[in-house]
Design a protein that fits this description.
Layout: H1 3-25, E1 30-34, H2 41-57, E2 61-65, H3 72-80, E3 87-92, H4 94-102, H5 105-108, H6 112-115, E4 116-124, E5 127-132, H7 140-149, E6 155-158, H8 164-176, E7 181-184, H9 188-196, E8 202-206, H10 207-210, E9 219-224, E10 252-258, H11 263-277, H12 280-290, E11 293-297, H13 299-320
Parallel strand pairs: 1-2, 1-3, 6-7
Antiparallel strand pairs: 3-10, 4-10, 4-11, 5-8, 5-9
Length: about 325
């Protein structure tokens, strides 16, 4: 009978120790990696999410920019991070997916499907094409006819070589039977400048950029590449409804972590993201700040989506003939 009080004491001390360890774990800062410089779309989204996570998780959250090598540095850092539920990464789907197709494992330094684990998707947004009105085209079919008749002028601006906009243009070329020459820029800023100055006949860009040209009398939004019209641009037709049906999926932003992170830590973050994205405040912030819409999909759903996109984009990228700098 004398053993019982001692046993209770041991159990109580054990419970208190476990509680203190848990408190210590969740008081340490969460780090969100971003593979691009501060001020870009991915960085802004990461900081919006971080602000909400601090409140939802009652835990410090910081954003760390690891720009360089086309976001490979961030992916490598994520793989190398301690699997303690404190390090995550936010990126556009095209980042990890395109890198996995374009580079060998030896150059990447990680395996997308075995070293990085999906947590959840965060947002979606359409890509669209903007053209100069002086081309005399009013819809996608007329643009294709113009490109066939003016092959030397059929160029489009892209945010970068090997970018999402680059390969959407490659798929449009393949589907329409035309040859569109990409002019890659370092980001969307200069694309917008040259487009508004009339130096580019056309450009492919994300909603945040093409919607700024909606009321420009010299420019016309030709269409978006999503399967259905976007609530972010409800009056802009899709290429599919204009008779050019081809699949380039739907762009999204997501969160990844190390594949060694525990299921409990992934679920904790996943649940927090689900709550954050469901709030009207977050929806409003995403739409007004980034021209994006919330899109929550669980880790399991995100993994299926990612694998499907690898299969969809691989032949498009291969047929484009693009080879990146190592």
């Amino acid at each position: 009978m004398r053993i019982l009080p001692r046993l209770k004491t041991v159990l109580l001390v054990g419970a208190m120790t476990a509680s203190l360890l848990a408190q210590a774990q969740y008081s340490a800062p969460i780090k969100i990696l971003v593979g691009f410089a501060p001020g870009g779309v991915t960085d802004i989204l990461a900081r919006l999410v971080a602000d909400k996570l601090r409140v939802e998780l009652n835990q410090p959250v910081i954003v760390e920019n690891k720009a360089g090598a086309g976001s490979r540095l961030a992916n490598q850092a994520l793989k190398a991070s301690a699997p303690d539920g404190h390090t995550f990464m936010i990126a556009p789907n095209s980042g990890p997916v395109f890198l996995d197709i374009l580079y060998p494992r030896s150059a990447l330094g990680y395996d997308l499907l075995t070293d990085l684990a999906p947590v959840a998707t965060l947002t979606t947004y359409p890509f669209g094409m903007v053209v100069q009105r002086n081309l005399g085209v009013k819809n996608a079919q007329e643009y294709v006819a113009w490109a066939k008749a003016n092959p030397g002028q059929a160029v489009f601006g892209s945010s970068g070589a090997g970018s999402h906009t680059h390969f959407i243009g490659a798929k449009l070329s393949q589907a329409a039977g035309i040859h569109l020459q990409v002019i890659p820029y370092k980001g969307d800023g200069q694309v917008n400048v040259d487009l508004m100055a009339g130096h580019l006949p056309a450009a492919i860009m994300a909603a945040a950029d093409f919607m700024r040209h909606k009321n420009n009398p010299k420019l016309q939004i030709l269409g978006i590449f999503s399967p259905q019209r976007s609530p972010l641009a409800p009056d802009v037709p899709t290429f599919a409804e204009q008779g050019l049906k081809f699949n380039v999926g739907e762009p999204w932003m997501g969160m990844w972590t190390s594949a060694k992170t525990s299921k409990a830590d992934v679920e904790r973050m996943q649940n927090a993201l689900c709550k954050i994205l469901a709030t009207p405040e977050m929806k409003e912030s995403l739409q007004t700040t980034l021209t994006m819409a919330p899109l929550y999909r669980s880790a399991t759903e995100m993994d299926k989506l990612q694998r499907a996109e690898l299969e969809m984009w691989r032949p498009i990228i291969k047929q484009s003939g693009f080879t990146p700098d190592q």
